[in-house]
Amino acid sequence: MSDSKQPTHKIASSRKQLTSFCMCGPYPRRRRYYQIREFQMASSADELESEDPDDELELDDPEPLSRAEACMPERLYDINEADADSKAANLEQLTIKEEDAWWNQVPLNNLDLSSNTLTHISPKIENLQSLTVLTLHDNALVELPPEIGKLEKLMRLNVSHNKLSQLPREMYSLPELRHLNISYNQFNEIDPDISDLHMLEFLDGGHNNIQSLPGGIGFLVRLTALLLPYNHVKELPPDLVNMRSLQKLDLMQNDLTCLPEDMGLLRKLECLYLQHNDILELPEFEGNKTLNELHASNNFIKTIPTAMCSNLPHLKILDLRDNKITELPDELCLLRNLNRLDVSNNTISVLPVTLSSLAHLISLQVEGNPIKTIRRDILQCGTTRILKTLHERALAKSKEEGSGSDGASTSAGISVTRLRAGQSDDGDMPANFPDSYHQPQFQCQCAYPCQQQMRQSFCVYEPLRNCREFHSQAQPHIYEPESYEQQHQNGHLGSLFVQKQQQQMQYPYPNCFMYQQKQQQQQFTYGSRLAVDPRWVYKLRHTRTLAVNLEELTEVPDQVFQIAKNEGVHVVDFARNQLSTLPNGLQLMKDLVTELVLSNNLIGYVPQFISQFTRVTYLNLSNNLLTDLPNEFGVLNTLRELNIANNRFQLIPNCVYELQGLEILIASENHIKVLNVSGLKSMPRLSTLDLRNNDIDAVPPILGNLTNITHLELVGNPFRQPRHQILMKGTDAIMSYLRDRIPT
């Protein structure tokens, strides 16, 4: 091609303080998907062009070149050097426009050459010493030059979607590299020298042909995300558990048959993906208390370890579909934060009634199992109907066994209430309970005849709570009421909360607690002070969680929150009760609470003091009666996830749009009619927006410009466009569809 016919790209020269260079292309449609906003790069060729024709740098257009000849423009390697015009400028010219002086230039630190047909990178790339981000995504590279190892400031390297089978050894000496993406290449192994990347925090090696992991990979102690899906890894190295900062581990679509027994050493692990492997059994996960998601579908798992249920108190998603599971343990009720349980396509014949005690369970998938104890029409009605049926059976069995009408008794002799309180089924402290203080044996000498009956049938949390002798001998550090007689007359709080009892029980003693409770229809008269079981206080102190669910509470005494505050509790959960608003005592914990769950109550309004919770990051107000939120709500800048699903909102309150830190907004199952795109645009960090099953009749095309939204749910609304087929293709398809319909 002659020089006279060769087209050129014109971009602003380094005299405009060019810090980022993007040459994504040459595909116009694909260019949209490779903009790098976080570095404020230009998103189109028009934005890169300078208005001054004399202030432009001409680069050869790579488009006319064949695929084999594709390479970076040579001028780019010297872009940090001042051009001849800048050096020749006299003092007078520089005085007029001093920012154009070569000594005022800002070096190039972000180079994006994605989605071209580059087959090699010149060794001259070592001249770009100031680079911190290098993106070579979606090219035809078969190797990288060793000179990349001289880019000592490089922090992010993306070479995904190429034809690489190895990385130059010099690259493993990069002292600042934190983000490495080598996915969608042809790697057969990961070089053991990768352990020399001591600053590495993110590693994506998915969609390769990796057979095994090097033994020294455990030295990557700063790694927070290890993604190796779609490979052929058969075994994990023992030192993998040394990655004490690891939060996300993705091993789906590999050939694993087992996991390390000491997985519990990964104490910060939050998400574990194990789908489509050959795993036969799960470990007990002792120590993985922060685990939120466990995905292990399409394996050969036969049983769910009982100990696993008590070791994962914060688990929200448990996916075990398409396995060989024959039975669900009753201890599943210990997963009190579980939101989604999927055991589809196993060989389960019975569902334990303890599932009905999971206050946060909103999705229970059991199709494809030979369940015979529940009618098919009930199973087809979904989660709510299944849980209701299980709860009714728990109540019936409870009455038969004479243990109360709250569903405390369950199959296999396990008490839901006792399990929630951390007790064994006989009401005594488990042998392995921490701090191992023991209850001495003594002869009860209570002055009130009802105590013997109460010991046997009332107090499933603390069976000896009303015994003065027990107080003095075994529990000397209890917060005592003013007098034992006053305690007996005012009614005793077995564990600070209302306990539902059998309404048919009769007591001849008018001062008996059980008699008063029946007469007052389950409502307590709280004394001026409360008796507190030290086991309950211990639980608060070591779990930092105050959780009371399924107790039909209409109010909570302030003393409860005072004690929780003293113990440093930061998670408050009163889901599935009958609260009409936020308890006033909650204000005592305004400086501590980070997670607040009040779902499935009767809350009709949120008081203004919610604005005082300056540390809250998660707020769940779903399944209530809310129509609005207070204006002060908008000051909660730390809030990252807000769930207001299944309320009575007709629009998203304006105060929500003021939440600058909000990342997840779930507002499904309401009556929202209009999408306020300008409001959503003011939320720069919003990535998940769920508006399913509302009354939205139109979706503005400009919604497609909000590319920070990576997960959008709009199913179940009455609008005609986008069509249902588009909605089913996912967020990318929806946003692309909307962008294409923006008027030009």
Automatic annotation (TrEMBL):
Q: Give the domain of life.
A: Eukaryota
Organism of origin is: Drosophila gunungcola
Q: Composition bias, kind Acidic residues: at what positions?
A: 46-63
Q: Which Pfam families does this entry report, sorted A to Z?
A: LRR_8 (PF13855)
Spans annotated as Disordered: 43-64
Which Gene Ontology terms of cellular component type are present? cytoplasm
Protein name stated in the entry:
Leucine-rich repeat-containing protein 40
Write out the entry's keywords from A to Z: Leucine-rich repeat, Repeat
Looking up InterPro entries in the UniProt record yields: Leu-rich_rpt, Leu-rich_rpt_typical-subtyp, LRR_dom_sf, LRR_domain-containing
